[in-house]
Amino acid sequence: MEIKGAVAVVVGGGGGFGSATARRLHAAGAKVVVADLDEAKGTTVAEELGAVYAKTDVTDETSIQNALDRAAELGPVRIAVVAHGGPGGPRTLDKQSKAAPQESFTRVLDIFLAATYNVDRLAAATIARSEPLEHGERGVLINTASIAAYDGTIGQTAYGAAKGGIVSMTLPLARDLAPLGIRVVTIAPGTFLTPAFKDADPEQLDAHWGAAVPFPKRMGRADEYAQLAQQIAENVYLNGETIRLDGALRFTPKGAI
Predict the structure, then answer these.
(1) pLDDT above 80 (res 197)
(2) Which of 89, 206, 239, 253 has the most neighbouring CB atoms within 10 Å?
């Protein structure tokens, strides 16, 4: 796909993965809509790029549709990236063997799995209205899972289930949308240095989390996620696949180390 001139909606565009992706797609010539619930972060990224900010709650259909409608005003929508964050949920039993609240599990699934599908289905309907490009392609959905989908650690039961669901729906969703020329690809990141770590020292984080990464022995960087997202958009033969982006890391029961 030729990114220049295309319209891209980046959900979670004010966060680590999302903001890096918004910047990279903008640099490649896309018209970007930064969709994020955090108005301060989303507006900051949008103003930096001269892009459009749309306050977006991924659990609310009307909110998502509003962001997509604003994107469609800019031109043919070709790219939708789902990269929002959220809670991870507690351990199944606490130290007193008390069961975790059921709503803590369903909330994680709602925010990650159900919300990803919510964005995908509405974005696909918007992209389907765009004229086909070379090879009959209309656009691409890029979702975000995690390597926790494959080897989740202690305390990641809900998160692993949600991210595993995103992995599992990638192929059938790609098959659903193939007649319309809409591709679906998922990125499964490992441990990445993002704003989620707040003000922690990057060198200390790299030393701690990077020790378990075979190579390179450091945490991933958000721009490496964004680079892959751009490559997915550009390569029309990438479809129906989940790509691990983790430096060959495999989680142990207690985490990366």
Answers:
(1) no
(2) 89
What pLDDT does residue 107 have?
Answer: 97
Boundaries of every domain in the chain = 7-245
Residue 207 DSSP SS3: helix
pLDDT at residue number 9: 98
Question: Does residue 225 carry a catalytic annotation?
Answer: no
Q: Which of 117, 150, 159, 225 is catalytic?
A: 159
Q: What is the mean pLDDT of residues 91-113?
A: 96
Range list of H helices, the chain: 16-27, 39-49, 61-72, 102-109, 115-127, 148-151, 157-177, 202-209, 222-234
Q: For the chain, how many helices (H) and strands (E)?
A: 9, 9
Strand partners, 117: none
Please give the mean pLDDT across all residues of the chain.
95
Q: CB-based burial of residue 69 (10 Å sphere; 0-12 exposed, 13-18 middle, 19+ buried)?
A: middle
Question: Which of 2.30.29.80, 3.10.450.70, 3.40.50.720, 3.50.50.60 would CATH assign to domain 7-245?
Answer: 3.40.50.720
